[in-house]
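Methods — Computational structure assignment.
A single polypeptide chain was analysed. Its primary sequence is given first, followed by the predicted tertiary structure written as structure tokens.
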Amino acid sequence: MPTKEEMKIAQGIHVRECGEPLVDIRRYNKQIVVKLEETSKKMQGLKVDRCFLRDSAAIRLSLAQGFLPGKYRFKVIDGYRPLKAQKEIYKNLLKLLRKRHPEMTERELVAETDKWVSNPEKIVPPHTTGGTIDLTIVDGEGIELDMGTAVNKVDVRSYTSSRDITARARKNRGILIKAMKKAGFVNDPMEWWHWSYGDWRWAYENKRESIYKPI
């Protein structure tokens, strides 16, 4: 969920498409749990939970899984997301905010929606590139670790460095951050679960071109 400043940055990032295909993440690692966000799953026409990423991103996710301690495993909520799914998710949140905030103007509602979901009319949504993934961690019993909020629960506690969460949640986020950064991913600081490789955010933080266009 890019800020206005980040939107300007994203629009200025040059993309040199590398041509990598989308691959099922289980091609490289079968330990990872996949439970897709329902709108994305429906829009991809998937009967079962399958997550797709660009090849290099999938390889790096497998590496990150190997950096987790003990019996911990990643649980993936979404990876590649078609543009039509992104538009649907954006539309649904805008509709929800209209109900919650009848006092807000349409312009204010759009601005608020833009804070939490990439507006496909203004920016290349990271998930449409196949280089972005939403995930958390589960223990050996398949139970999600306490991260302070659920995935996609957007408020100030979802900020990766939020102090409005318990010490246990901060420790668990630290485990996630360490594994993902070591594998070469970069984080959206407003969403602890959102990690990128090859898209505009990754390119900006690494001071280079993006290697993935939308698919």
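Note: The chain has a mean pLDDT of 91.
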